[in-house]
Specification:
The chain is α/β, with parallel strands linked by helices and 529 residues long. Helix content is 49%, strand content 9%. It has 21 helices and ten strands.
Length: 529
């Protein structure tokens, strides 16, 4: 905006309008500076943290309990019914006075924890066989190197659930009388964990194959001294984490393959390419060719070269769109995301398939606007109140959806997001949200999906904490183990299983109760009756 020729000649209203425009421009510049500052901070060691207070819309729209139940506190229940008595001791009283009568016992339960080193010297039998070779008795299951299963159970629980750093874990073990080095602790954390890696991968496959919805998000992560991104995929029954160097749509589609490495040209792949505006002749080349499945990226890249697609220099990039389509074809070919809605915070890389948007993030666009006048603040407050009321109506609709409510909510959405105020920046945000109407109102067609991605944000907070405590991973195996165990830990929590019990079963700790495979539990809970 160019300055006026004569400021002295402007009226009071014109000067006020000019000042408001300048305030908005200054706020925009401040946001740009903050974004640059966050980018510099991320390049130096981690992502910048936005200073945005939560709006409180989710909690504020919860229905109030009837009566005066807010003052009533629920009791925690009987402790004795939740614990197992391991030992009973009789406590003698001091000698009572003469004439006293014995009245039995009174019970007083005390919980304690016994932690001490337990060293076993296994005397393994050795037999000289008739052929001259030696046979040695096999050690019990769960022993790795010179460390038993309970020690491994303790180390894995402290590191992944307790989020203890390796140096502190080494110091703790040594203080308890365990002679162990940092290198040995690292080996316990990352070596020989193939079964856990496989179960984490199968957990993702089970969730993607049958879930009606998933929520997704990502956060910064460090690997090999480079900045990367950790993506979370999950719902109320499972969680999975994957760390890569990219947060592109191509990367997200690769993660959704759940460990498969193939590229497939099928009806789903071709539909995806059409939706992304890939040119018709390019689609025809791929559709008419006899080869439809490619084992890996090298085979797929060679195929694009043979069809002269790699040489095309047009917009959109045909190689990128065709590759995304082939990845989507692979996802569908393996039976993933059959009728699944992906709910995200409107980050572009997650906009694939049936896509819904988080209402908490949508409302935040209005909540975080900078206001400079009373009129601005009044308009913002009015619109936020309308959005909160609409959000409460959506909650009611999810519980008992009807066709009449659906029509009424669609009309109400238009009334809110087509509103014009005197606050220009607010009107722009409302127009942006109105353009996302189909994704924000996905819940009207699929009332089972959530209205927000709070579950994913809560899950991914562990990765944020780990990043602050330990920085990043240094090996590909370490990265894979960190992601896998975080996936297993969060999935166990959603299935009502303690990580300690889960590890005890998988590591063959004597006396531990059996825990079913997590993919089986997910399929059992999500399978329709």
């Amino acid at each position: 905006m160019s300055p006026p020729n004569d400021i002295d000649g402007l009226s009071h209203v014109e000067l006020k309008s000019l000042a408001i425009v300048q305030f908005e421009q200054i706020a925009e510049l401040q946001r740009m500076v903050a974004a640059l500052r966050d980018e510099v901070a991320r390049l130096k060691g981690g992502p910048g943290r936005p200073n945005i207070k939560p709006s409180g819309m989710e909690r504020g729209t919860e229905p109030k309990p009837p009566g005066n139940s807010a003052k009533q506190k629920r009791g925690r229940g009987s402790t004795r019914s939740k614990i197992t008595i391991n030992e009973e001791r009789t406590v003698k009283a001091v000698p009572p006075p003469l004439g006293s009568r014995f009245k039995g016992y009174t019970s007083y339960v005390v919980q304690d924890l016994v932690i001490h080193p337990h060293v076993v010297n296994f005397q393994c039998e050795r037999w000289l066989l008739p052929d001259g070779s030696l046979m040695t008795a096999t050690l019990p299951a769960g022993i790795k190197g010179h460390f038993g299963p309970q020690l491994r159970q303790f180390v894995l629980t402290q590191y992944h659930q307790g989020q203890t750093t390796v140096p502190r874990l080494v110091a703790l073990l040594r203080s308890l009388g365990i002679f162990i080095s940092k290198r040995q602790v690292l080996r316990l954390l990352i070596e020989g964990q193939d079964d856990f890696l496989t179960e984490a991968r199968d957990t993702l496959r089970a969730g993607l194959s049958i879930s009606p919805w998933i929520t997704v998000d990502d956060t910064g992560a460090r690997h090999k001294a480079k900045n990367g991104f950790c993506t979370q995929i999950g719902n109320a029954d499972f969680a999975w984490f994957g760390t890569t160097y990219s947060k592109s749509r191509l990367n997200f589609l690769e993660l959704l393959r759940a460990g498969h490495g193939d590229y497939v040209i099928n009806a789903a792949a071709l539909d995806y390419m059409r939706q992304r505006n890939l040119s018709g002749p390019v689609i025809d080349r791929l559709a008419e060719h006899s080869e439809r499945s490619f084992a890996d990226r090298a085979a797929w890249t060679a195929h694009l070269g043979r069809l002269d697609i790699s040489a095309l220099k047009v917009n959109p990039d045909p190689v990128m769109v065709a590759t995304e389509g082939a990845l989507w074809g692979s996802i569908k070919a393996h039976g993933f995301l059959p009728d699944t809605v992906i709910v995200s915070d409107d980050a572009g890389q997650f906009n694939v398939g049936q896509h819904g948007l988080c209402w908490v993030h949508a409302e935040r666009l209005v909540h975080k606007l900078d206001t400079f006048t009373d009129q601005n603040r009044a308009a913002q407050a009015t619109v936020r109140g309308m959005i909160w009321e609409f959000y409460a109506d959506l909650k009611v609709y999810r519980g008992d959806p009807t066709k009449q409510q659906k029509i009424a909510l669609q009309a109400k959405f238009d009334d809110i997001f087509k509103t014009e105020t005197d606050f220009v920046t607010l009107d722009r945000q409302l127009a942006r949200l109105n353009a996302n109407k189909s994704e924000l109102l996905m819940v009207l067609d699929r009332p089972e999906i959530p209205l927000h991605t709070n579950g994913t944000e809560n899950d991914i907070r562990c990765q944020v904490t780990r990043r602050k405590l330990s920085g990043g991973t240094r090996s590909d195996l370490g990265r894979a183990c960190r992601d896998a165990f975080l996936s297993l830990y969060k999935t166990c929590a959603k299935q009502g299983i303690a990580l300690w019990d889960y590890l005890g079963d998988r590591l063959h700790v004597p006396g531990n109760k059996p825990i079913p495979q997590l993919p089986q539990l997910i399929l059992a809970r999500l399978q329709p009756p």
